[in-house]
Every structure is written in C-alpha cells, then in structure tokens.
Amino acid sequence: MGPVGPQIVCRVPTRCNFGSLGEAPEFQGGVLDALRQPLEEGEVRISRSEGTASFRARFTLVLAANPCPCAAAKQINCSCAPNVRRRYLSRISGPLLDRIDLKLELTPASRAELRYDLEFAEASQIVAERVQTARDRTLKRLADTPWRCNSEIPGPELRRRFAPPAEAMPAADEALQNGSLSARGLDRILRVAWTIADLAGHDRPGEDDIGGALALWTGRRS
C-alpha cells in the first residue's frame, strides 16, 4: 500500500436533500449498511492509497419495505411463513435501523379512505405554516449556538445543554435499562422530542414528547 495522501474535502452548499429506497430489503446488505456512516456523520468519505476525499452528505433518507417477499395486497392473502417474513425484514440490519429516527407501520388504505382523503386532509399551506413556526422556535433557542436545527446538535450537547427535565425521562430511562434503546437511539429520540415540543409550542420536551419520540423510534404503536 502506498503512502496515504492529504485529506481532500469537497464543500457543497448546505441544504437538505431527500433520498428514498423502495423495497429496501431487496437491496444487498452491504449497500444498505454503506449508508450508516453518512447518516451518522453527514458526510461520505472515500479512502484510497493516494488520499481520502470527503463529501458533504446531509440528507433525509426514506426507506420503504413490504412486510414479506410476496408483497400481498392484504395480509390475509400472504402466503409467506412467519420465519420467511422475519428473515425478509432482518435484511435491514439493526445498526442501520438504530440510525433511523422514525419508524412507522402503515396499514392498507380502505377504498373509502382513498376516495375521501382529499376532503379531510390538511392543506399544504397550513402544514407549512405550522412547520415554519416550529422552525422559528428552534432558531430562537439555538441563536447563540453553531446549530440551526435540532438534527445538528451533537449528542453530548443534547444531554448537557438541552437535557429534558428528569420527570420527562422515565420511559427513555426504562428503555435504556432493559436494552431496547441504545445510546445512539437516545440521542435520536431527544432530537425528535425537541421537534415534537417545538411543533406543540412547548418550551421543553415533556413526558408525552419523550414518549412520542420513543414510540416513533421503536416503531411501536402507542
């Protein structure tokens, strides 16, 4: 192996890009796990004998998966054995899932829901105004810091400067104790809890905000 050259840093404008992977379990495990480092550090590093190139890579990743290989329209029509379903979903590794902030299990939409969804759905403008209000709260709170949004706050600073009150943490403490929540997962639910609090107009995350963030991280329905 030749000598390692200097690090090459590629700077690009800071903005949030979106990427989506449908049928995620169909990708090779190595391809999916290659996303772990960019999700964690916000950059892609390519190392060769001549040097290392670093590329800014802050993005929102959306993974979608059917519960089984047959992708039946309804669960009652599924022909897959339980062990086949478990093996299929396990293709998305635990370390990658540990870095996914929100996990949702969607139920099939009924014909009535598909037909009348637009009648009851909120207008995009209303949602955008609510999001902007939450972002303004975040910016005000972080005005004297190098960060602009909750996702940018490093874990140690989250736990030190932006720690929720102790009375809000029982659910997270219990999950840490029984091993269902990792240290990395704790940082992620704290960021989500702050976002939930900002959307709700709370000064600090409360017990419901922490519980909601934990439910979203684990993927369990509350």
What does this structure look like?
The chain is built from ten helices and five strands. The termini are far apart. 43% of the residues lie in helices and 12% in strands. The model is unreliable at 1-14 (pLDDT under 50). A hairpin with a 2-residue loop joins strand 3 and strand 4. Helix 6 packs across helix 9 and helix 9 (183-200) packs across helix 10. The strands form two sheets. The chain has a three-stranded mixed beta sheet with strand order 1-4-3. Strands 2-5 form a two-stranded parallel sheet. It is an alpha/beta fold and 222 residues long. It has helices spanning 29-33, 36-41, 82-89, 94-97, 111-120, 124-141, 155-160, 170-178, 183-200, 207-218, and strands at residues 7-10, 17-21, 43-48, 51-56, 59-63. The protein has two domains: 7-100, no CATH class; 116-218, no CATH class.
